[in-house]
Structures are given as C-alpha cells and as structure tokens.
Amino acid sequence: MSMTEETTPAVGIDLGTTYSAVAYLDETGRPITLVNAEGDLVTPSVVLFEGNQAVVGKEALKAIATEAEHVAQCAKRELGERTFHKNLQGRKYPPEALQAFVLNKLRQDATRQIGDFRKVVITVPAYFDEVRRKATQDAGYMAGFEVLDIINEPTAAAIAHGFLKGFLNRKGESNAPRKLLVYDLGGGTFDVTVMEIRGREFLALATDGDVQLGGQDWDQRLIDYVAEEFIRTYQLDPREDPNTAGRLWRECEDAKRTLSARGKVSISCDYKSQAVRVEVTREKFEEITQDLLNRTQFTTKQTLQAAGLSWSDLDYVLLVGGSTRMPMVAKMLRTMSGKEPDASVAVDEAVAHGAALHAGILLAKSRGEIPLVNITNVNSHSLGVVATDTRTERKRNAILIPRNTTLPVTAKRVFRTQKAGQKSILVRIVEGESASPEDCSQIGKCVVRDLPPDLPAQTPIDVRFQYQENGRLTVQVSVANTSRELKHEITRENSLTAEQLEAWRLYVTGQPVSDPEPSGIADDLTIVIEEDE
Ligand code: AMP
User: What is the mean pLDDT of residues 412-439?
Assistant: First the structure.
C-alpha cells in the first residue's frame, strides 16, 4: 500500500550522543515512545562492526568490554570532522555515516511497530553549529529517511513539556506568556536555552552550551579515580588496555547511576590478574566532578543574562537529559534559581516527544491545516566575514549576524575594495565570537572574479547574509557601480558529496551496493561562486 500524507505517521528522533529515542504520535495526537527490538525505550548510540555487519545498540555497548577496537561510540561529538578518529576494521568512516547506522536501526525497529515510514524530525543540541546540523541531516538521509526538519533539543523538550503539562490549550496556545529555562545535560553534550512561549509562538531567547561536556565526563572522573587507586596498589594502569578500559567504563557508568539513587557504591576493577575494589560515596563523587558542574552553572548564568532575564522572571526550570538524574544537578539549580527544577516529563523521552509533536505540526501544515504551534529559533553562533581593518592592517571577524538573533534574518554590511584595479574579491565566511578569524571556524568562501579593470580603491561591496530557520545560509555579494553580483548558498567544507551520500545510503540501509569508499571522503571544497543571472 502506498503511503499518503494522511497515513504518514509523525515520528521524532532524539539522536543522542550516548542514547537515542524514537517517538510517534498516536491516533489521538499524543506522543508515545517506541520501544526498540530489545524492548527498551532508549537505544545506545553505539555501533559494533562485525565482518560486513553493523550491530547497533545494547549488544554493541556490551562489546566495548571485549571488542573495543571494533566499536564506535560518541560519533555525535565528532560530527563536522571529516572522519571518525578511529579506524574500524581498517576503514575510515565519516561520523555522520556512523550516526546513520544508529538511525537505520531506529528506523527498522520503529517500522516493526508503526509500519513503513520515511518522514522524520531529528533533534540536535541548540549549540550545534551549521556544519553539525547539516551532518545530522545527511545522517538521516543515509539511513533512508526524509528529514522534515532538524530542531533544537531544548525547543523539542519545551514543546513536549507544554503539551504534557497542559499549559498549551487544545489549540496549542499557551494561556499566558511562559518563560522557561531548559537545562539539558545528556551523555556527551550540554545545552542551556531560555525560551518564551507566547500564544502559539515558541521563541528561543538565548542559547549556549558545550558540545564537549556530558555524562561521559562524569564517568571519566570515576574511571580515573579507580585507575589511580589501581596504579597506587599495583603500579599498573588498567586504562592502557582497551577492553579493560571498556569494562571499567561500563562499571563506572553503572556506579554513577547507582549514586543517583544511593549514598555510596563499590566499583571493582581487575587487570592482569590483579584486582581492586573502590568505595565511592556520593559526596566524593560530587567533589571530584564539582568543576564539571560549575561549568554548566557558569553557562546557565550567562545564558539567562544573555536573554535579559533574572531567575524571578522564569516560570519553569526544565530538566532534560539522562545526566540530570544526578542529584547534584537539581541541587545546584535549586540553590541558584530558588525554584524547584521540573523533571515531570521523563528526562530521556521529552526530546523525542517534542520532535514527534513537531513532525505532527509539519505534516499538518503540508496537508494545509493550521499548525498548532510556531517555532522561532535563534542562531547559536555569530556569522561574519573576514575583513582587513585598514587602520591596523589586521584581519578581523566582521560580524553580520550576532549570536542569539531571531531567525530568519537578513543582514547587510558594506565593505570596500582594498586597492585600485583589484581583480577579484575573496569573501571568507566565518562562524564564531572572536574578533580574530583564526579563532573562528571558516564555513565557506566565495570569490567574485573579473572585476572591471579600472575599479577604484575603496569601491563599496555589499555583503548580504540571509539565514533561514533551517540553518541554510545564503550569501550575496554585490560590487557598487558594476554588474558583478553573486549569490550562493553556502556548502559546508567537510560535507559529503551527493554521490557519496547516495552510496552511503545504499550501504547503511543494507541494499546490495558497491563499497562506498572508492569515491573517497570529500576534499575541502573551495566555493567558487557562479554568477547570478
Ligand atoms: P541522554 O543522552 O540524555 O540519554 O543521557 C545519557 C546520559 O545520562 C549518560 O551519560 C548516562 O550515563 C546518564 N544517566 C542516565 N541515567 C542516569 C542516572 N540515573 N544517574 C546519572 N546519570 C544517568
């Protein structure tokens, strides 16, 4: 039976660093988390390569203790890099291809329950830059999905919260303006977002975070604590051996969960026929991870400030992400905000639920229905171009769109040519807050060639950025008194070509295909802009 818009289920995916979850809307429009083939609500985002086969989830996670060299985990942290740091069975994988294997498993498991479907919404941390968003979208494509949208995890959590707590009425409108702070500490990333829900509008007021901070860092502190005890006792480091390190990590992750429920835990570690047993109290655990928590506290304060709010302006402080189960998190937020943090929507399902609700909204829109809610986003990083400061002769980042600007947005800035008779103009587009271009990431460049030979120095050049809600950036450059005008949508460096995506899609979804590797990983692309007609 062919699928029509009417029968397409609304599916949302929380593609987490350590765990992923899938939800869909049932016939009454309520989000339900789908269990995977193993019967669990969340699936470890871990891939084990076994011969030609990729095993994803719980079994892959277990294999960390025995076949660590064949296991890929936390690929989400490396999105935007050209290849994953580790060779797997002699092969290099782009991180998005590893994410695609995870998504493919989620798709297969979900299909068993709700039938065949293609359209999904996938979530990303609000702090993700555009490179990582595009990589996530590509991962969805490679897994056989049609990605309806990529939305921010905190926005999704806020939608789920608004829906389930009933402060959105049946039309999806908030009864009164609500301001909330979403504190999201997952396995590998940390995000904090201040949102306002006004009628049907979901507005992100400010967002910040750390893509290199999550539950795994708490695990690592326990691992190091136990390893140091081992070294003291036996002058041997159990972290040297990948399988022992994998086993120790699993022990420590488990111990961390125990410490969320109990005051102490005992962790054992054996290596080269020697063993230690280390007792860790919750106090000790909190002490050895205090600086990690402080980092989240600092970011939280700054984000609230960036939104121009104080704690008393907030209606809710929402907890999202598995790591917010650690009592230290709620304790810190309670002290800081004077409010009781809210974890009433299951912390590891809220994001997938919100994504499914958003998918429902988009599908309804495509059927011509009035959407329940509107979502307004902000950009998480400033966008600018590299320009030379004529006074200092130094290159600097000239920002066109400051961070936390409401999207979509168009911004224009006038620059000038450097010298008389200049033949071409190079516009380097950078993302980042620093004034120094070296500390920002270059996301693309465009070159305006064949300028008229007699162009005087200081000729004005208009650079216009158009930044869409979906994170696509269009750059337009026009040179005064000439017909030179260029327009180009930025293609990210390090992203895969259409042919490579196609090859990976066939490979990941298990169709008979040739090895995707011969086409190679994309080389850095220099964007030479075509002339706009
Ligand atoms: P998420 O990516 O949101 O699913 O979060 C996963 C992270 O939450 C992992 O680092 C888990 O170790 C952590 N986590 C899950 N449950 C608990 C718990 N009860 N106590 C502490 N951390 C937890």
Answer: 87
Cβ–ligand 1 distance for 348 under 6 Å, the answer yes
Q: How far is CA 215 from CA 7, 186, 212, 249, 323, in A?
A: 38, 6, 10, 12, 6
Q: Domain 383-490 is of which CATH architecture?
A: Sandwich (2.60)
What are the residue ranges spanned by the domains of the chain? Answer: 215-288, 383-490
What would the mean pLDDT of 147-159 be, rounded to a whole number?
89
The reply to whether ligand 1 has any atom less than 6 angstroms from the CB of 125 is no
Q: What is the rounded CA–CA span in Å between residue 321 and residue 210? A: 14
Tell me the average pLDDT across 70-94: 92
**Residues shown for the chain:** 533
| 153 assigned to active site | yes
Q: Is the pLDDT of residue 374 over 80?
A: no
Q: What are the E-state strand segments in 26-86?
A: 31-33, 43-44, 46-50, 53-56, 71-73
> CA-to-CA distance for 132 and 209, rounded, in angstroms?
14
Q: What are the CA-CA distances from residue 489 to residues 145, 162, 275 (Å)?
A: 23, 35, 58
- The dihedral formed by the CA atoms of 309, 310, 312 and 313, expressed in degrees to the nearest 10: 0
E strand spans, 243-297: 264-271, 274-281
pLDDT at 169: 55
Tell me which fold the domain 215-288 belongs to. Actin; Chain A, domain 4 (3.90.640)
Active site residue: 76, 119, 134, 445, which one? 76
CA atoms of 416 and 429, how far apart (whole Å) = 16
Pocket test for ligand 1, best of 13, 18, 76, 265 (most atoms within 8 A of CB): 18
Q: Other C-beta atoms within 10 Å of 201: how many?
A: 14
Catalytic residue (choose from 109, 138, 153, 348): 153
